[in-house]
């Protein structure tokens, strides 16, 4: 098909994100497809810059959505709901970031650590570079 964009599978895209992070941040700990509690995290990166919960979505076309609504994609004039409001990627990654924070709080308390503050976990959603975010609300 002429002009078609190759769309990565979800797992292939997650691996690509993890591999790029490994190359860009050689000092760090990066894992792909890990569970923290009951939350599956696509990519977890512990870097000198912070701890990152990364939700990888292999969406394509034009992407629409915000933190409090459904996410939609428009491709070839067709609009499709890709994530309902309560399952949108923004909310998903926040749950994962909180799961990591809860885990770290539990571990540090059980080790009689002086660290009693909740760790700050950065949460982000990444999409392939071919996804059109021109219509996307930024958070």
Topology:
Elements: H1 10-24, E1 29-36, E2 39-47, E3 50-56, E4 62-64, E5 71-75, E6 78-83, H2 89-110, E7 121-126
Parallel strand pairs: 3-7
Antiparallel strand pairs: 1-2, 2-3, 4-5, 5-6
Features:
single chain; alpha+beta; 3-stranded antiparallel beta sheet
Helical segment count: 2
How are the strands of the largest sheet arranged? 1-2-3-7
Low-confidence stretches: 1-5
- Beta content: 25-35%
User: Average pLDDT value?
Assistant: 83
Shape: globular
Number of domains: 1
Overview in brief:
This protein has 139 residues and is an alpha+beta fold. It is built from 2 helices and 7 strands.
Task: Describe, in plain words, how this protein is organized in 3D.
There is one protein chain. This protein has 139 residues and is an alpha+beta fold. The chain has one domain. It is built from 2 helices and 7 strands; from the N terminus they run αββββββαβ. It has a 4-stranded mixed beta sheet with strand order 1-2-3-7, with helices on both faces. It has a 3-stranded antiparallel beta sheet with strand order 4-5-6, with no helix packed on it. Strand 5 and strand 6 form a beta hairpin. The longest helix is centred in the C-terminal third of the chain and has 22 residues. The radius of gyration is 17 Å and the shape is globular. The termini are far apart.
